[in-house]
């Protein structure tokens, strides 16, 4: 990353930290926030693991009610780490991560027959090695809600402050976890949210706020970090994956100079080559290039509006057994979560408050969601947290074109940390699972071979092995 981009943001970051320190002192008093056990889930049955849900009020008057799902570790909950998982988006419901990525139960796609979707145990759930809180954050995501119109608006800083206050209150009610190692984790857009949240928690600890959180570090997968760079790295990544020819790649490099998003309108040759690139990739599923795309007819495969229209149409078909043609792609499988979660018996089992939300969506309509993206580059937060000695695990599914691993490597390299362990393969069951580099600042970067944008969804065994080794301070 160019120094000219990072330095002004570092100056802004110092002002940001001062502002946060002041705000932390005026958070409302900590009141216990009790959860309710969940013993049974429709589509599955009696649960063989310990699970609770609940709301925690945050804000000066608890005008924001954040909904959470807590799963005890299936190994040793008294000593296993406590992980706070923030789903991407911003504002995607935590249940999409629980039921398609790393939770103890996953949606069944192959056996769906038009009735209530069913679930099965996930043998590679992250709860095998950790206690996990999945949080619907920011307000408006999942089942979290606000009691006033004004409180329904949020931004990156407000989300972080609310999340910090949530953690404090949750620990007051779950004191048995106060001494457990604590990590903040997430993937996709959480690459923006998680470093900010981690920084706010760290600042709270330094300010002497109680309870003190036993923060050890953070975990990020295919993390959005600095969007312009990530979009620019799609072209070299696509070339490396064999999706575009050498001739086009060389022409793009020579005419565009590495800038493929904000192109000078007079640079017609660059514009023409980018148009050719977009056409060649119009039938590619960017979140995993080897998977079928849900709407191959579209000439703009990653254009949200046509894609969402297609998915809404498909959701209607999935709800009607007479129109059912089968779940043929991953986005259709994800839509089963909307059918399952919006069933009244499911929401009753989860103890969702009636009348506090509309139809549950896996991810919100970002144009309508009252969330302001005030921070768009979290590289300075990584630098700050590393200087404070926090551990970090940064992983990338290498088949993801949405956030290419090349862009992640580049911002890590821009931090100028010395390398402890050079790029090497790591193994699961005797097979190469990816490639790992470790740095002197306690940062570990690894690829997940064959995984897409949400890596645990594609390579669950490898991701669980990665997490287990890392949280127990073992080499990958």
TrEMBL record:
GO terms for molecular function: acyltransferase activity, transferring groups other than amino-acyl groups; serine-type carboxypeptidase activity. Keywords: Carboxypeptidase, Disulfide bond, Glycoprotein, Hydrolase, Protease, Signal. Gene3D superfamilies: alpha/beta hydrolase (3.40.50.1820). It is found in: Secreted. One of its GO terms (biological process) is secondary metabolic process. InterPro entries: AB_hydrolase_fold (IPR029058), Peptidase_S10 (IPR001563). One of its GO terms (cellular component) is extracellular region. Belongs to the peptidase S10 family. This is Uncharacterized protein.
């Amino acid at each position: 990353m160019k120094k000219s981009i990072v330095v002004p943001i570092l100056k802004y970051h110092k002002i940001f930290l001062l502002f946060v320190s002041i705000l932390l002192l005026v958070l409302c008093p900590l009141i216990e926030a009790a959860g309710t056990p969940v013993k049974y889930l429709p589509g599955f049955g009696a649960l063989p693991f310990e699970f609770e849900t609940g709301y925690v009020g945050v804000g000066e008057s608890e005008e924001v009610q954040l909904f959470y799902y807590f799963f005890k570790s299936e190994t040793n909950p008294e000593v296993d780490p406590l992980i706070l998982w923030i789903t991407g988006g911003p504002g995607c419901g935590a249940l999409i991560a629980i039921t398609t990525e790393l939770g103890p139960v996953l949606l069944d796609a192959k056996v769906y027959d038009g009735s209530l979707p069913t679930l099965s145990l996930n043998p590679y759930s992250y709860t095998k090695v950790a206690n996990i809180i999945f949080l619907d954050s920011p307000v408006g995501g999942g089942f979290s809600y606000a009691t006033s119109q004004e409180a329904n608006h949020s931004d990156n800083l407000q989300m972080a402050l609310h999340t910090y206050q949530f953690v404090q209150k949750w620990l007051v009610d779950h004191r048995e976890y106060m001494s457990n190692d604590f990590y903040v984790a997430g993937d996709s857009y959480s690459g923006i949210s998680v470093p900010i949240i981690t920084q706010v928690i760290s600042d709270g600890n330094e300010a002497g706020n109680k309870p003190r959180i036993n923060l050890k570090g953070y975990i990020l997968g295919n993390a959005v970090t600095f969007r312009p760079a990530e979009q620019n790295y799609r072209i070299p990544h696509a070339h490396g994956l064999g999706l575009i020819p050498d001739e086009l790649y060389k022409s793009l490099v020579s005419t565009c100079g590495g800038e493929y998003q904000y192109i000078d309108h007079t640079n017609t040759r660059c514009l023409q080559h980018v148009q050719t690139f977009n056409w060649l990739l119009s039938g590619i599923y960017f979140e995993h290039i080897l998977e079928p795309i849900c709407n191959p007819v579209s000439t703009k495969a990653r254009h949200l509006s046509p894609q969402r229209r297609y998915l809404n149409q498909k959701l209607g078909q999935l709800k009607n057994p007479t129109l059912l043609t089968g779940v043929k792609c991953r986005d259709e499988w994800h839509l089963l979560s909307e059918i399952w979660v919006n069933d009244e018996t499911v929401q009753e089992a989860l103890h969702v408050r009636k009348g506090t939300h509309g139809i549950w969506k896996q991810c919100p309509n970002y144009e309508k969601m009252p969330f302001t993206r005030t921070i768009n580059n979290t590289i300075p937060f990584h630098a700050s947290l590393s200087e404070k000695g926090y551990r970090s695990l940064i992983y990338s599914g290498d088949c993801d074109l949405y956030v290419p691993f090349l862009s992640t490597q580049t911002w890590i390299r821009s931090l100028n940390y010395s390398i402890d362990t050079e790029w090497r393969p790591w193994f699961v069951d005797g097979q190469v699972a990816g490639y790992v580099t470790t740095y002197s600042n306690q940062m570990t970067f690894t690829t997940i071979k064959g995984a897409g944008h949400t890596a645990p969804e594609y390579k669950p065994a490898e991701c669980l092995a990665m997490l287990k080794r890392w949280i127990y301070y073992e080499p990958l």
